[in-house]
């Protein structure tokens, strides 16, 4: 029997799974430790105690520490954590909605749509300011999600149709992106390839304050709908029998998933496989109930991307590998492992 604590305030009440809360707190602590290590690594190394002193505004042996930590390195580490958290939340929602353990933003074509829009802007319209690439990527992800839902609609949506049509739309978007890259000018193609690999290099407080409201708003909305997501993950008939408005809740949760993935991809490019791996790791730790799974997945995804970016910085220093390459190198074998374990694959 899982131990739970009831929180009541006014007319609202919330049952908290104590084990899930403890695991999520431990994952957040691991993520914070990763951020401290991430901030301390670089051409000008800073020890973890000095990083903590700089973060807390305390004096240290070097006057430059506060500037290096707070202005140069901390925003990149925090953006990495938020990007991972957003992708993980998006993947956890999609896996619950589709009842498919292989569902993730990149599998359903959402990342591919963002990539196509960004590459089109970079390669075909090089005179357009680079600042418009993230909004274009966001619009591409939303457009693909809208097309996915419309094409899958047959008097109602279906998890199987959403997955199959998402894979098809993603393949088309990827093919169009390849065509754009093949026939583009080498300078623009190089820029597009860097964006497609997924990287948080050079990200600043501006990107962080842009991404954070999306994560807070749609993450909180998804958490408030966790009870409905639990019901939908049992099947449409069971959910309807429990009094859940199936199509309404599926639409709201799909909106949350798309918004989170789109905001993350618009910030850091197509960082692959985080939305697939993090929910599985979190599910092993806290169980399948989405009330505990969603925050645990967010903490797991954030920690994964921070560690991936840190590994990309130190593995072949002074060269840096984009964090998207590191997550793909780990995520691709993990995806094959999930396929092998799937009961549906003979």
TrEMBL record:
Pfam families hit by this protein: FecCD
Residue intervals passing through the bilayer: 20-41, 77-95, 107-125, 131-150, 162-183, 252-281, 293-312, 319-340
Highest taxon, organism lineage: Bacteria
Molecular functions per Gene Ontology: transmembrane transporter activity
Gene Ontology terms: cellular component: plasma membrane
PANTHER family in the cross-refs: FERRIC ENTEROBACTIN TRANSPORT SYSTEM PERMEASE PROTEIN, FERRIC ENTEROBACTIN TRANSPORT SYSTEM PERMEASE PROTEIN FEPG
Annotated family: Belongs to the binding-protein-dependent transport system permease family. FecCD subfamily.
Protein name: Transport system permease protein
Organism whose genome encodes this protein: Rubrobacter xylanophilus (strain DSM 9941 / JCM 11954 / NBRC 16129 / PRD-1)
